[in-house]
Structures are given as structure tokens and as C-alpha cells.
Amino acid sequence: MEFIGYMGDVFTPINFMLLLIGTIGGLILGATPGLSPTMAVALLIPFTFKLDATQGLILLGAAYTSTVAGGAVSAILLKIPGAPANIATTLDGHTMARKGQGARALQLSFIASLVGGVFGVFLLIFLTPVLAQWALAFGPSHLFWLAILGVTVIGSLDSSSVVKGLLSGCIGLWLATVGFDDIMGAQRFIFHDAVAGGINIIPALIGLFAIPQVITMFANGRKPSETEVLSVERHPIREALKEVAGRTRALSIGTAVGSFIGLIPGVGGQIAGLVAYDQSRKVSSEREKFGTGHSEGIIAAESANNAMVGPSLVPLLTLSIPGSPTAAVLLGGLLIHGIFPGSDLFDNHPQVAWTFINSMLIGQIMMCIFGLYVAGLAARVAQVPNAVMAAVVLGLAVFGSYSVQHSMGDVYVMAALGTGMYFLERFGFSAAPLVLGLILGPIAEANFVQGSMIANATSNLGSYFLTGPLNLTLIAIVVASIVYSAWMEIRHRRYTTKDEAVAKEEALS
Amino acid sequence: MSAIWQTQHVLASGIVAAVGVGVAYISYTAQPAQAFLFPRLISTVFVVLALWTFGKAVIGKTKVGNGLNRTQMIHIAPGLIVALVYIFWAAKGLGFYTATAIAFFILLTLYDPSPHNEPRTWIKRVVITAGFMAVMYGLFAMLLNVFTPREIFF
Amino acid sequence: MRKLIAAASMALVSLTGAALADGHENYPERPLMMMVSYGAGGATDFQARIVTMTAGNEDALGLPIAILNKPGAGGRVGWNWFATQAEADGYTLGAYNVPHFIAQSIEGGVSYTADSFEPIANWGADPAVFVVSADSEFNTMEDVVNYAKENPGKLTFSGAGLFVGHHIAALQLEKAAGVKLAYIPNNKGGAGAMKAVIAGEVLGGVNNLSDAFRAQQAGNIKILGVFDLERSDFLPDVPTMAEQGFDIDNSSVNFRGVMVPKGTPQPIIDKLAETVPEMFKNPRVAKQMKAGGSPMHIMTRDEVLEMWAAREETLQELLSGL
């Protein structure tokens, strides 16, 4: 309960101002395509040079929580996920916004973010020592199985065809191997200078989601589209609160998956949203509604990606190991003020540590209030005419992917992947499994190579990867996930004919 | 289902299968073999799945994907050409801001349904383009300090 | 006549020379960019951000330097880009890590050598240290080597990657102690390698002094030896490898500094070589570097050129045995 004692520090006028600046700035930066939370926090570091340690961390903490939630704004309104964490949000969120219910989608996403986020920060406050052990428990063999678990999600993520879903995933896994191999440093599949440095995930994400969107708008031609007559529904916040409260299953799955997977260094943050989305679809009684603008999809995805924020800092705050790129940047923010995370932080600088944690807590609430306030206004984006929208998204995609590394190559990769993806989508392939492959490829490969090096030096490959309670548990989950997907596929097939499937697709596109 | 629809599917899955075979070929021949262990694994699965899909397309059993009809192709072509010229040449050749403004304006002209013969339409298009450019400049050049290729101006 | 032509051409040369110099008189006219070939939050990135924070001051360059991260494959991605695609206009700077890029260019498979870059100045020197987890049974390097002698090839220890400072240190240790060890390169850099040690995935590790110092303060690890010629100010109690009887010099010490691509106009290089070391000497920089546990070591362009050449030679020799 120590944190309550330091709550007052968040509410001094200057600190609270900084908290507000961090929250609002974070939402804007998070909603900008190409700016992942890591980049957004890195951009704010120079401002903290001039502040004292507590103030600097309030700014960074508030910005971190709200950039993650801000990513949902562009995911819902423009179908451009700001970071891998927001991919799952596009699946139902954008569909909902296209139906004129953008306000509802944004409100659901902010409220779910708040619930997940607050739960995550409470985990950080109360269970840090336990969580630290959990974060360390994952060695190379476990991370490898975790990545494989992610791969099994690939097949079921695309509801229309398991084979094409897996094939899309394979394309993603292959694209991830392009460039220098991370351990040996060998060059692989470098067929053009633009990919010499490998395929950067953020430009790829922008291309794969935004460009097909732009081309689909072109396909409507020069006719007044339905968007101009679309009335954007007003959606009272009360209704949204009621809806989130009614979806306890999606909310609890999202929060639980987000906080526990999000904790695992280097893996969790990127896939928590997608895994939570997939799991809540598997247990939902309305699984066929997922992907058509269903509220459970948004709630699960957004509660998961914000629940990850608190736990993802556990390895940093207790062991001084940054578990995610964003945590690494925050470490820099601490070091600049001469504060070393670890036991030193809580023993000698409790004021800094707890004020930082409190600022994330209050930041979540401010983020939600501010987000709900602008949701109705932001939803009007759906009324923007097709032609303008296509041009705006294209321009944002180009600037956004350039700004990640100041590289023209990234822009070319973005455009090439995006154009290719549009045509693939017309033939039943989908972007989400492809991106998941792109994320999981390096994790699976690097951990397999490291694991096998350790195994060869100490014991043998089989016992390293296949024994131990954690390995066995993960393998069991992998098998269960595959069996479940296969069973659903067979059951589904019995009463779905080809024409029905096509008709369903047409209704969606 | 129509013949065009099936041909398109055969073509699309054929290209994917060809890429898969190419990847597999490189993975099994390139050096150092140690670094290509993982690509070999992936490409094997890739080829199996791609050939399965290709086979299904050839015998006409493809279940999902609507392909493209003639109208859609005609609608897409001009916009796609503008977009590709903009990204692969103009952005670097003319500078980001100049190229974006031109591409933005052309796309509006191509796809905006308002009548071309009214001055109001043109004023509206110019204003929207200028507004968008102002936002982009403010956000990327001023706030985020991103130095984009500039060439002619900015 | 010939004299006249010679005189005329001399005049022309001096004129164009003057004109060229004129062209760079106002340098820099816009903000600069510095490429760091490691991810945001890594030790190199963190230090690069600190040492460049005063670039905007009037007595330094007068304009800010923005940091641009191009991480991947132990730095190869960033340096390849820097050697082949970066514009040699003086506005694109890069951070170097020696011995990393020199070792990688000797190993091959990259498009750069030490000749592809022009050093400007060095800001820091971060020696490698040998670490074990706090509850490890090893207390000295002797314990480690004895274990390795009894179990050849079974002593697993982590480091940031292949052909980086940590790997060089590992090779030196193997050679000096005459044992076979199992070096496990980590794909997440120094932080990932440190996590592997603390979590007990490996028996030990080579890591940066700055990161190890922090982890030791947090009570997670023990530091057994420094791969340098003398003890560090941060760790006065930890003996060097040479003190513990291993013939290991400072070849693996991670020197960090600023460089520009080959082909950058000489007047600009001269201007930078003059200004940048002074910029590093700013007391605010020194204070924050010290606060972050990062050892500083300022060297001028000429000193760096010498250091690069010396490293090239020792690394050629060390790596030829592979």
C-alpha cells in the first residue's frame, strides 16, 4: 500500500501539468502512423533532461500508457495499426467504424484499455517479486515454444480458410528471414538494396494494412460512396460502459492474457493483443461475428495491449533488465538522472519509483477521460469522402514509414508489400497472419539457435527442448490449440458450402 | 463460378507457389548452410501449402476470395499508377512535400465525384490539398523533426 | 607560354579551392543526424544521446543532432547503410563501435572496412567484464577456468553477438587460458545476454562494464574480471584479467565515437574534428555520463585514426586463427 502514500506527488500543479502533457501528447503521437510507443517515448527523452527525475518519469510514464492506447485510434479510424500491439484492434474496430459506429468503437477501446491498464499497473504494484520470477523463467526453449504457440494462432486467425491463413503466415515467416541473420550475421534473400537491412516491422505493418485499404477505395471508382450519406451514430458513454461491463468474458481473457504474456521479455507486448483476440474468439458463443465489427474483438484486443504496460516494466524495475524496447528507452530516462533500476530504486528513491507507477495509474484514467471526450469528434473521420480518405491514408503511409528510420528503402518495402497484399487479399489470403509470421519468425529462430547452442554444449537437444514443466505445459497448450482449431474447422465445414462462404465474404468486403 | 474467376485464382496461387519454390531452392543451396537452417524449415512448409492451394485452384475447388472484376480493374488502374509513380519516383525525385501535394491533388481529381466543370469543385480540392500539406508539415517537419528528401522546395 | 598556363592553372586551382572552402564556411546550416547501429535504449544509443545533447549550444555546432537508430545483426545493418547509402554531405554522422565493425569487416560479408569511414572523435571506452549470477559457485576467474578444464566445451557463457567486443573478449580468454568454452551469442544484445546470466540460462557471460556495474549494484551478479589493461574507476575492487594471470590486452574494449562516411568534404571533417571533442568535454555531458555509469574517454581524430589502425592489426591476427 506504499504507493498511496506517494499519490499526492502526482497532483502537485507542475507534476499534474506534465502528466496531462504526457497523456495528450502520447495520444497524438500514438495515433500518428509510424510512431510506435518506443519511438514516441524516445522522442520525449530530451525534454526530461531539463526536468528532475520524478518529473521526467511522470512525463514518460504517462506518455507510455497513452501511446499504447493512442495506437488504437489510427487502427480503428484509418486501419493503420500504430504498433504490432494494435493489429488485433483493426480486425473488428475498423469494421465497426466503417459502419458509422466509430464513436462506439473508440469508446469501447478506451474503456477496455483503462480496465486492462489499471489491472496491469496493480499487478506491478502488488505482485512485482512474483512476476519477476515469472519473467526470468522463460529461457530460449520456452520462448521458442511460445513463438510456436503464436504460429498455431496464425491458422485460426483467418476465419475463412485455414490453409491460406497458414500460407500467409509462412510468407510472413519467410519475409522475416530477409536481411542479415541476427546471430551468424550471414546475408539472406537480399534481392534489392531496400531490404538489405531486413524488413522493418513498422513500415511493413503500415503497408500491409493501409495500402490495401487505399486500393479498395480506388476500386469504388468515381462515384459518391456510401460514406457521404453515412450518418455517424452518436453513442452515449453510458452505453459503452454498460457494453464493456456486459462483456466480462472478453474483458477478463484480454486482461489476463495481456498481463501474463506481456510480461515475458521480448515477446509478449507484440503478440498479446492477437493471442487475446484469438482466445476470446475460441471461447465466445458468437464466434462467427468476430471480424464483422463485434465488440468482444475490440475489448479483448485493447484490454490485452494495455494490460501489458505495467507488467512489461517488471523486469526493468526489479532486475534492471529492459524486457521490451520501450522499457529500454525508459531505462535511459532513469540513467540520465543517475538512478539505477533494481532494488536500489525502491530502497533509495521510493519517491521516484512510486510516483512513476502512480503516474501510469492516473495516466490511464486521464487517457480514458480524454479519449472518451474526443471519441465522438474523431469518429467523424468515417464521413470523410472516399477520395480524400484514400489520398490522406496514402500520404500518411509514405511519411509514416519514412520517419521510422529516415529511409526511402522502408517506403519502397511498405508500398511493395501493401500492393502485393491487396491482390493476395482478393484471393483469400490475409494480412494479420502474415504480420504475425513476420513478428514471430525472428523470435522462434533466434531462440531455437541459442537453445540448440546451449543444448549442444551441456546436454542434448531433445532434453533441452522437450523436458521440464514449463516446456511441457507450453507444448500441451500448443497441441490443444491445434486440435481445437482442427476440430472447429471440421465441424464448421459440415454445414458451410462454397457458395455460403463466398456470400459471407462478399457481405464483408 | 466463372472461368475468369478460376483463371485468376490459378494465376495468383501459381505466383505464390513459384515464390515458394524459389525460396526453397535458395534455402537449400545457399551458403553458409547453418544460417539457412530455419529458412529451409519454413520454405518446406511454404511449398507444401502453396502447392496444395495451387492444386485446389486448378481443379476449381477454391472456397474464398472474390478476385477482381473488369470494372474494379478499370477503377484501380489510374489510382494505382499515380500511387506507384509517387512512391517509387516522385517522392525522392521531387521531394516529399512537392510530390505528396501533386499526388494528393491528382488522386482527388481522379476519384472525387463532384462535377469537374464547376469552379467550386476545384477550389475545394486545392483547399483540401493545402490543408493536408499544412498538417503533414506541422506534424513531421516541425513537431517530429523528420528531415524528408526535399529537392525543389521545403 | 607553358609558365603562363601553369600560373593560370595554379590560380584557377587556388580559386576553386577558395570557392570550395567558401561553400562550407557556414556549415552546419541545418540540423544534423547521427546514425546509431543499435536499438533505442541500448548502451551506445543512450550514450550517443547524452554526448550530442549540447550540440545545439553556440560554442558547439549551433544546431541539434538527431539520433537515428538502424539496429540489426550486431550493427552490420547500420554500418552497411552508412557505408553505402548515407550521404557524404557532412549532415549525416554515424556512431562507431570498435572493435565491432573492424572485426566484422575482417570476417567479411559486409560492404565496409575501416577505410569506408572517416573518424571525427571518440567519446567513450567501455571495457568488457566477465560476469556470473549472484548465486554462482564461481568467485574468481580461476574457478571459471578450472571448471572449463574439467568440462571442456561445457562452460556456457553469453555475449552480445558474434564479431563484437564480447566475442573478441571470449576468444582472447579461450586463447589465454588454453581452454574450450561455449560462447552463446544473444540476439537481443547486451541486455539479452545479461538476462541469460541472471536467469541462469548460462553459467556466465561477457558484458559491458557499464551494464554490469548497474546489475551488480542491483545485487544480481558478481563481476569476476575486467578485459582491460588497468582496473576501472567504477570497479576498483575487480582485478583485470592480466592480474589474474591471463595474457589479455585491451583489444576487446568497446570504443565509441563519431564518424562520417568517406567522401565527406575535408573542410567539414576538419571543422567537426575541431568542434566535436570540445563538445564532449562539456561538464553537463560528463556529469550525466557519470550518473549513467558510462566511462568517458575523449580522443581526437588523429588519436582515433591511430587506434583504428592498431586494432585492425591485432584483430587480423586474433581472427586469423578461426
- Evaluate the radius of gyration of chain B: 23 Å
Strand fraction band of chain A? under 5%
> How many β-strand runs of chain B?
0
Terminal CA distance of chain B reads 53 Å
The number of helices of chain A is 24
Structural class of chain A: mainly alpha
Q: Which stretches of chain B are poorly predicted, pLDDT < 50 over at least 5 residues?
A: none
Can you give me a brief rundown of this structure?
The complex is a heterotrimer of chains A (509), B (154) and C (322). Chain A has 24 helices and 2 strands.
Question: What does this protein structure show overall?
Answer:
The complex is a heterotrimer of chains A (509), B (154) and C (322). With 509 residues, chain A is an all-alpha fold. Chain A has one domain. Helices cover 76% and strands 1% of the residues of chain A. The model of chain A has no long low-confidence stretch (mean pLDDT 83). Chain B is mainly α and 154 residues long. Chain B has two domains: 3-58; 70-143, no CATH class. With 322 residues, chain C is α/β, with parallel strands linked by helices. Chain C folds into two domains: 30-126 and 253-321, D-Maltodextrin-Binding Protein, domain 2 (3-Layer(aba) Sandwich), CATH 3.40.190; 128-244, Periplasmic binding protein-like II (D-Maltodextrin-Binding Protein, domain 2, 3-Layer(aba) Sandwich), CATH 3.40.190. Chain C is built from eleven helices and eleven strands. Chain C has helices spanning 2-23, 43-51, 76-84, 100-107, 141-150, 165-177, 189-198, 209-217, 266-280, 283-291, 301-320, and strands at residues 32-36, 65-69, 92-98, 117-126, 128-133, 156-159, 182-185, 204-208, 221-226, 254-261, 296-299. In chain C, the strands form two sheets. Chain C has a six-stranded mixed β-sheet with strand order 2-1-3-10-4-11, sandwiched between helices. In chain C, helix 6 (165-177) links the parallel strand 6 and strand 7. The longest helix of chain C has 22 residues, at 2-23. Chain C is globular and about 65 Å long. Residues 10-21 of chain C have low confidence and may be disordered. Chains A and C meet through helix 4, strand 1, helix 16 and helix 21 of A and helix 2, strand 2, helix 3, strand 7 and helix 7 of C.
